[in-house]
Design a protein that fits this description.
This protein has 173 residues and is mainly beta. 9% of the residues lie in helices and 28% in strands. The chain contains 3 helices and 9 strands.
Length: 173
């Protein structure tokens, strides 16, 4: 056997740094997208600043976007919170006071086009929807959660609305 002198060998070792990769979260894997065409929902006031909309199963069943399955939303009526940009009143024809909506003592302001362009209602006092009114909205998924994106107010619950208000002309949400 030969004796090898290892002291004369010059070797450098560079440890390989492994980057810790974690599994992707739901937010990274599920893109934000619109799940339905315009649907009718009933607005509910949770408290003074939070509103939800209840959409019946048969109202959104035939209004799904082409690549969406019913399991993405559910097989029952859904109650969804509105998106943050749903509270924007710049395009709303009608705004309502937040106070008095539960007992129907609210004030409704009807705004013409110049009011919508030049006057902005106080977001601490007004919202673009009202408790127990019907509205048109889209069901959207944002960061893995379902929301309703408000389009416009239709009528008070129990009254008829025009089906032409549900034509989906705007492709972007």
């Amino acid at each position: 056997m030969r004796n090898i002198d290892f002291s004369k060998l010059k070797m450098t070792f560079k440890p390989k740094v492994s980057k810790n990769k974690r599994a992707p979260t739901v937010d990274d894997t599920v893109p934000d997208k619109r799940l339905t065409k315009l649907v009718v929902g009933l607005v509910n006031q949770v408290d003074n600043d939070n509103y939800t909309v209840t959409i019946k199963y048969f109202d959104f069943l035939d209004r799904l976007v082409a690549d969406v399955k019913i399991s993405d939303i559910g097989k029952n009526a859904v109650t969804l919170p509105f998106t943050k940009d749903s509270y924007d009143m710049s395009k709303s024809e009608r705004v309502f006071t937040k106070v008095g909506q539960q007992n129907r003592e609210y004030i409704s302001l009807i705004r013409n086009e110049s009011d919508r362009i030049f006057k902005s209602p106080d977001p601490n006092r007004y919202v673009p929807f009202c408790h127990r009114w019907l509205c048109s909205c889209w069901i959207v998924r944002i960061k893995g959660k379902l929301y309703a994106k408000f389009n416009k107010i239709l009528t008070i619950a129990g009254h008829n609305y025009k089906s032409s208000d549900l034509k989906d002309e705007d492709n972007e949400v």
